[in-house]
Each structure stands twice: as structure tokens, then as C-alpha cells.
């Protein structure tokens, strides 16, 4: 068994990134119009050693959401800086590094949206999800929670759902994961991060029945797509093109921002479904072996499954609807 020092000095993969930014954000919720209320970054060198860390509260300019989870009340956040006030400092922490997070698609999309609202872009080109990495390493975890990953590596969590402590825990668990990957020649599950450029500055409507201390409770209402005008032609068949009207569901992390990917599907005449049923034509996922409700249902229904790259290729030549 090689220790970390031996791995680092004699066997470190030259293709691995030169630095990482381990990130955790706490938010007002999970939707497109939700906001960041706190953020933390642990900067790590190429071999996962901590260089420094940073933490900030963020005034979301709306109700703080699930206070019982993150513990940040309106009073605490009222005098906190706005995101645009900390965007430059945040950028400096992220620049030229791979963003590392637990369920990275969520943290990345929240960060990308905040930068888009501030008419800027996060300097992030790649991300690494520690859930995906733990799967690549075949770690014997009972589930994909951060606390399970921490327990596996003997990392003590002190304040769950506090951005700084969650980032610390993840940084401490990521380092041995990174060294295990280097030792075993595992290719890191890096995904591309594309900054959001398609964003509207139209005023938001507040959520019904609530007016928060920061004014309107939403920055932008969620988009309601018009119904697909084409009938469902049935399931996708391998070797044949997609056809307008097919019902497409998405599951898990994607390289392209999920909503942009869904927009492309809608523009091509496809129906984007929020769940998997017997009528679903195709499930798009980069992790078909995960135990999400969508992948489990897809297997039980025999729904065809393709990854994001294959789906992107299929989008280039969607057959017109019948009739």
C-alpha cells in the first residue's frame, strides 16, 4: 500500500488539474429563482492540500427560505453584502481551479445564476462532483450523503448545513479520495461548466401570499413552457432519430446547464417531462446506474436511456412529427 507522500512524489497523474476550489453554498431553496445566502470556498493545491479558506454571508434580497436547515434568519442576513458585492472576491477564489462540490450540479447552477444576475460570469471551466468520484472509486457507502462520505474517511462534521463547515468536511474527504484516484489510475469525472448568458432582467413577481423583508420574494418567476404541439410518437429506438413529440426526461448531473439543455429539446419540438412514466420516450442521464427515482422507473418500464453526449448528437437531426 502506497501512502499519500509516495503517490504524490512518484505516481501523480500529469493530466490531473493543478488546483481545486471546494465549494458549498446554502440557499433560499432549490428552484431557479432561489438565491445564495452563504458561500464558502476551500482552495486546494494539485494534490488536495488546503491553501486557504473563505466564507461569506449573502443578502438574498428576499425571504431566507428554510431557516430550520441553514439557520440564517432575515435579521442575520439584512446587513450582509449582496452577491454583486462579493462576486469579485468569489471569482478570485474560483479562478483557474476545478470547482469541487457534493452534488456539484446544484452548487454550480446556483453560482452561475448569481453571476448571470450580476451581469458577470464565474471563472470556472470544469467541475468535479464528489458523489461521482466516490462511485468511480467504488467506495462502500450506504448512500450518497456528505455525512456518509465524511464518516468513511473519519472526518468529523461539526455544523451540518453551515457552508464553511460543509466545505471543510468535503475538503478533508476529497483529499484522500483524490489520492486514491491517483494511486489507482482513476480518471477524474470532470464535467464542463458553461457560464449562463441567457438570462432576463425582467422584474420578478413575489410568491403568492408572502412579502419578505427584502421586498419581492423571487428574482424571476419560473418559466412555464407551452405544451408540446406534437403527439407522442412513442419510444425512442436505437439507430433511429428522435421524433418531434417524444417525451424526454433528464436525471442527474449534466455538463450543459440543465435548463439550457431542456430549452434545446423544446426548440427541437420535443416534450420535456419532469418525471418518468410508461409514456416516456427517452431518459437522458450520465449515470444510468444511479438509484434515482427516474433511473429506477426507467429500468422497470424498459424506457430507453442515453447519455448527454448521445442526446446532444440526436438533437441535431430530429425527425418531424407525423402528419
Automatic annotation (TrEMBL):
It holds the Pfam family BRCT. CDD domains: DEDDh (cd06127). Keywords: Exonuclease, Hydrolase, Nuclease. SMART domains: BRCT, EXOIII. Residues 216-241 are annotated as: Disordered. InterPro entries: BRCT_dom, BRCT_dom_sf, DnaQ, Ribonucl_H, RNaseH-like_sf, RNaseH_sf. Residues 19-183 form the Exonuclease domain. Residues 240-318 form the BRCT domain. NCBIfam families: dnaq, PRK06063.1. This is DNA polymerase III subunit epsilon.
